[in-house]
Structures are given as structure tokens and as C-alpha cells.
Write the C-alpha cells for this entry.
Amino acid sequence: MAGYLLHHIIRFGRTLRAAGVPITPGQIVAFVHALEWLPLEDRDLFYYAARCTLVCRREDLETFDRVFEWFWRNPLMGGQLPPGLLSTAPGPIRRQENRPRPAEVGHPPAPEPRSENPEAPPVILADRAMTYSPIEILRRKPFERFSEEEIQRVRRLMARLRWQISERETRRLRPGPRGEHLDLRRTLRRSMRHYGEWVRLLWRTHKRKPRPLVVLCDISGSMERYARMLLHFLHALSHTRRHVETFVFGTRLTRITRCLRHRDLDEALREVSRTVVDWSGGTRIGECLHVFNRDWGRRVLGRGAVVMIISDGWDRGDVELLGREMERLQKSCYRLIWLNPLLGIPGYQPLTRGMQAALPYIDDFLPVHNLASLEQLAAHLERLPSRRSARRSGLARPVPSGEPE
């Protein structure tokens, strides 16, 4: 635990005991261990971690909330509760005397209370001058350089990502405070309260529903070093959103949506390995997209679906077929996004023949090489416009993320 934060946590436990909440040293240790897995800058996670580990009785919840709010605004005054802080708490508060405990022998004396002078320097809860943030390093580290321990940590970080795709307007209408359609039935019914006078006009607006998400991931030999982390990403994505269809392709197309429904990641990956037979082989993107458009397009591309293709663009198949199928796929979906792990390499240019054939029909060309790129992807999906924008022409080239238009 960095800096002075551990010292303040111990003082916070003493303050809770002074307020009548029974706190044991084991609970303090559990709270410290819980903070090792949480970002310290998130106040809500810090609060719930403290509440789950330090409170064992329902009647202590309100006392805990009051002490928590007061202490972390005045951390240098721990143990010196103001007289009116707990006066409105339900039931009698059993205060304990601040007697020396065996664990406190040799503990440095508490610092003096902070002055009320507004020009006084702020209280430092954690001194990070000689520390580093492993989470920030993992966010920027490429997937192919992860160790086994780092993979386990990134799995937990991926599970915390929230994917909110912009919603679509349906043809069905619902009552709303404003809209484009006058609700005559409700307006006439409301007017009967005022002897037939139309005092207020009532409106109807279009219902909004989430868009389906379709993911096609390349598992050929050139994508082998990224395949494991991308499967972790697809598993987390499938359990965050309801309408997600997932396919993998190399020399053939395989649907793995049902395999990823397993809550346990290891079981899901074992099911995927038993289902997919073309791991680390060649790449025929055009033939696989042809099978997808022919067999699955009508099933999964309705209701304004967003399609994401994850591939480096290395293709051994027919380039003309790839161009035709990309054009057909773009016309069938609401948004076509291509995620390329090589786009995160400085100086990368999409010069392979597969990428050159696909680029004119891509709406968004984005990197997917580390955790930070996934966070940028989540933010990009949330900012998608509710209505389809004008599509690029077949001769236009999409601007990759980070390049000026």
C-alpha cells in the first residue's frame, strides 16, 4: 500500500470503533487486500470495499456512512468525532474509550489536526512520488508481450469495461414529453377534463432499442499472437451485452456465440477449441465473408447491426471477391468497423492487398493492440450517431484513428 494510505486506513478503523462499530484487525487486513485489486481514484469502489469488509451488522450502516463521509474529508482528525455527527443516528451509539492497544505500541503519534486556514496545504492520502501504477502500464502494453500473470489481471480489467452502443429509433411510437407525432387519442381524452378544450397537446415519440453487435475475428497464423487476448475480449463482450453474435474465421467461418455463453472463461475457451478446426492456418477473408453474407447475413444483420471485423488484413484468397463481399456487407449493416492490431505500431501503413481491397468499404479503421485501444473502442461505439450517416464511396479511404482528415 503506497504512502500514507495504510496509516489513514488504520486511523479510520479506530474512528469507527470510537463510534461504536465493532472492527477487528482481520477486517482491516481484508480491506487492505481488497484495495490491491481496485483503482484508488474511484471513490465509489473504495467506499463499497470498506463497507463490505468493515461492516457486519445492518444497524451499523448509517453510522458507517456518517463516519466515512466525515473522516475522508478530515483524515488528520481521526478519533476526534465532532459532538453532533452521530446525534441523529438511530439507537444509542456505544462509544469506546481510546485506550492504548497492544497493536498500537510503538505506533507513531497522530499528526496535529489540520488548521481551518484555507491556505493550508492539502492533505496527502497517498504519496506516489516513488511508486508506479501497474494498471497504467498494462493499459499501454501490447497484448503479445503479456506474461501469464499479466493476462490474468487484464482479464479482470476487461470484465469491468462497459459497452454501450448508441441506440436506434424503431418505427413504433410511445408517449413522450415531446416528439414529431401528435397523440390525438390521449389529447382528446385529456381534453374531457376541461370540457373539450385542448389545454395541452400530447405527443408520441419513437421507441429506442439497443443495436445488435456482430464480431468476426481472424484466427489465422498471422493473428496467433493476438488470438488469446482477443478471445478473452470477445468473452467479456458477450457477457456485457445481450445481442452479440461472434464468428471466427481463417480458411472457414465458424460461429462461436454459444461457446462463449459459458460463464467460466476456461470452459468457454475449451468449447471454442473443440468447435474451431482451422486455428493458426491460412487466411481467406473473401471466402469467409461470402459464407457469412450468404448464410448468416439475413439472420444477424437486422435491426441496424454494428459489424466489427478483427484482422490484420493478410489474405491469401481472391482479392476481387473480398472487395465485393465487403461492399455487400457494408450495405447490409448500420456501421462497419475494422479493428487491426497492427494499426497500433508507429509508422504502420495498410499496404497489404487484403487491406487495400477492404479499406474503401470500412466506416471506421481502429487499432486493437492493448487495453487502452479497447477503452477507446468502447467510447467510440457509445458516440455513434443514432441515424446512419452518408456512406463513403467505393474509392474513398477511411482515416485511421489518430490521423488528420
